[in-house]
């Protein structure tokens, strides 16, 4: 009995020792597994932090590059009239001035910015051919060319030291390519590739229709990440082009002085002239009023010897004449169209279109292509915004917005080769010594046309001022009742682009480009 008990005790003791050893092994194994797991978890966490940091820096560089695109658009918008011009202030090679900023790319240039345009010979021609585009330079005569736009709009963060030291080096560098468009809308054929818009290959392009490829390189704050984005910008003119009629007045025309109007010979179709267009009545044949005469430009110039003419030659070599003292003839045999002179019976010819229900309800929207309620788009896009017209002179050009009363007595405004679209919002005065080249817009954009009372906008036209171009007025403008001359010259009016909007070309944004 005792022997049996001893054997049982011995077996239970051995079993306890085996169980203790197994438990210890399991504990050690678990500790090893947990250690390995912690090790790999630390490695994964470290990798995730690295990836997260890289992602943050990459996104930061990307956002900065996007800012560069936005700032470049604003920069080009402010210079839109000079970008594709060879006039005195133009940026293109061939401009006589000192404001040139474009140089032609060469086909073998594989560095940015030229490399952002494809070669026409490589089968990837996208309209932006390297052979026909220009790249921006700060100074084309510099020994070392700086191809970056002068943009310094990003705010840099500094520390508190004296002098402060930059602690955030986030930034961008922006380059650009110019394509002056060779495009004729009237010849566009959806099935004919040769009629598609492309970059001009003339060597000396000059045109208002341009496309600009912006190449923006953004850099993260520590300089370790870089993003390159390209975006093509293109300009549009929302308006319908130059006015087709020399005088557009919602109100009646009742001059008490001498009114001379040189017609647009093709305003209502080929060979169909128009001088005056009005929603209300034009007093031409009624006795007791002023003297009115309309004619074509040739008859107007022939009223004086050519020694009284002024000759103009624009950058394209087009020559045309103006005459500040000429008048329309007063006889039909001499070329008069409509007239009230007593030498012949008075005649209101078909060149005067009055009491026309199709006259635009809003000349502001008619000319600019922008709703009157959005007139700030036009004001913001103006080359100059003035309180009054005291600084207006022969050097004034482009779109000029005047917030106050405009006194133009004795002034010569613009020129035949650099005319102006002058928007007067609180009235104006012109007298015998006033000569203006361009489009005169008499408006009050704060008040809808239907709410304007006639004569609410003061207008004084007397003594024979001359406007080479066109005059347009709101219903609130005072009736044109003085003596003045309006000469429609197509070559002058087509040089005016009152509202040019630069925007993103749909589908042109990319950050997936290989340059070569």
What is the gist of this entry?
By secondary structure, the protein is an alpha/beta fold.
Any chance you could write out the topology, listing elements then pairs?
Blueprint: H1 2-78, H2 80-83, E1 102-104, E2 134-136, E3 171-182, E4 198-199, E5 210-219, E6 226-236, E7 247-249, E8 258-262, E9 276-278, E10 291-295, H3 297-301, E11 309-313, E12 319-323, E13 352-353, H4 363-368, H5 375-381, E14 384-386, E15 398-402, E16 406-407, E17 412-413, E18 420-424, E19 428-430, E20 435-442, E21 459-461, E22 466-473, E23 484-487, H6 490-493, E24 501-504
Parallel strand pairs: 7-9, 7-22, 8-10, 8-23, 9-13, 14-15, 15-18, 16-19, 17-20, 18-20, 19-21, 20-22, 22-23
Antiparallel strand pairs: 1-2, 2-3, 3-4, 3-5, 5-6, 6-24, 11-12
Q: Averaging pLDDT over every residue, what do you get?
A: 84
Question: Structural class from helices and strands?
Answer: alpha/beta
What is the helix content? 10-25%
Shape: elongated
Tell me the quaternary state: single chain
Percent in strands: 15-25%
Number of DSSP helical runs: 6
User: What is the N-to-C succession of helices and strands?
Assistant: HHEEEEEEEEEEHEEEHHEEEEEEEEEEHE
Using DSSP, what is the number of strands?
24
Largest sheet: 12 strands, parallel
Distance between the termini: 100 Å
Q: Which residues sit in consecutive blocks of at least 5 with pLDDT less than 50?
A: none
Gyration radius (Cα, Å) is 36 Å
């Amino acid at each position: 009995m005792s022997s049996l008990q001893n054997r049982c005790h011995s077996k239970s003791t051995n079993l306890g020792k085996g169980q203790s050893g197994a438990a210890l092994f399991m504990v050690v194994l678990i500790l090893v597994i947990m250690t390995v797991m912690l090790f790999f978890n630390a490695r994964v966490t470290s990798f995730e932090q690295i990836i997260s940091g890289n992602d943050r820096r990459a996104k930061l560089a990307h956002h900065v590059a996007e800012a560069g695109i936005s700032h470049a658009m604003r920069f080009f918008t402010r210079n839109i009239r000079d970008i594709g011009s060879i006039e005195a202030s133009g940026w293109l090679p061939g401009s006589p001035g000192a404001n040139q900023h474009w140089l032609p790319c060469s086909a073998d240039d594989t560095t940015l910015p030229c490399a952002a345009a494809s070669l026409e010979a490589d089968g990837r021609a996208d309209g932006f051919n390297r052979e026909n585009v220009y790249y921006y330079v700060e100074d084309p005569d510099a020994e070392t060319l700086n191809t970056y736009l002068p943009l310094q709009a990003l705010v840099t963060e500094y520390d508190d030291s004296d002098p402060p030291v930059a602690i955030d080096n986030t930034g961008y560098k922006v380059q650009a390519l110019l394509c002056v468009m060779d495009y004729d809308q009237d010849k566009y054929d959806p099935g004919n590739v040769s009629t598609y818009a492309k970059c001009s290959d003339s060597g000396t392009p000059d045109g208002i229709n341009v496309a600009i490829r912006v190449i923006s390189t953004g850099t993260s704050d520590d300089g370790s990440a870089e993003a390159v984005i390209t975006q093509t910008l293109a300009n549009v003119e929302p308006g319908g082009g130059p006015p087709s009629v020399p005088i557009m007045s919602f109100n009646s025309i009742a001059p008490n002085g001498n009114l001379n109007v040189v017609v647009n010979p093709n305003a209502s179709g080929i060979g169909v002239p128009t001088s005056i267009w009005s929603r209300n009545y034009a007093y031409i044949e009624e006795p007791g009023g002023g003297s009115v005469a309309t004619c074509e430009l040739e008859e107007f110039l022939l009223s004086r010897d050519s020694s009284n003419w002024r000759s103009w030659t624009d950058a394209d070599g087009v020559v045309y004449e103006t005459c500040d003292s000429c008048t329309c003839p007063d006889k039909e045999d001499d070329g008069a169209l409509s007239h009230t002179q007593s030498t012949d019976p008075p005649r209101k010819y078909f060149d005067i279109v009055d009491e026309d229900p199709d006259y635009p309800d809003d000349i502001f929207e008619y000319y600019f292509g922008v709703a009157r309620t959005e007139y700030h788009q036009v004001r913001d896009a103006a080359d100059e915004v003035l309180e009054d017209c005291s600084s207006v002179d022969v050097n004034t050009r482009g779109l000029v917005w005047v917030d106050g009363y405009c006194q133009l007595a004795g002034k010569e405004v613009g020129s035949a080769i650099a005319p102006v679209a002058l928007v007067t919002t609180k009235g104006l005065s012109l007298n015998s010594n006033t000569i203006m080249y361009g489009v005169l817009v008499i408006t009050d954009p704060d008040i809808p046309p239907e709410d304007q009372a006639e004569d609410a906008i003061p207008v004084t036209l007397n003594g024979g001022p001359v406007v080479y171009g066109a005059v347009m007025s709101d219903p609130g403008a005072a009736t044109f009742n003085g003596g003045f001359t309006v000469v429609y010259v197509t070559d002058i009016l087509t040089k005016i682009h009152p509202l040019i909007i630069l925007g993103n070309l749909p589908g042109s944004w990319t950050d997936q480009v290989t340059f070569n």
